[in-house]
Amino acid sequence: MEIKMPKFSARLKELRKEKKITQVEMANLLECAENHYQRIEYGQINVSALTLEFLADFFEVSIDYLVGRTDKREINR
What we know:
Blueprint: H1 6-18, H2 23-30, H3 34-41, H4 49-59, H5 63-67
Helix pairs in contact: 2-3
């Protein structure tokens, strides 16, 4: 069963562009190939919980925001 997360894909791309980071730079940050990162951003690959946590921390947003469960960016700590 393939599960796609369109809000995650859109938000990941939006956050990356806000930080003015290229897909190549994101791939390097995640230690993956550029085409693998592109497939993540296009919603073709589901990411692990560890990757979600890393991305949320990197972009300083909650995981719920990143995956589209809320529109509030704040992290509850």
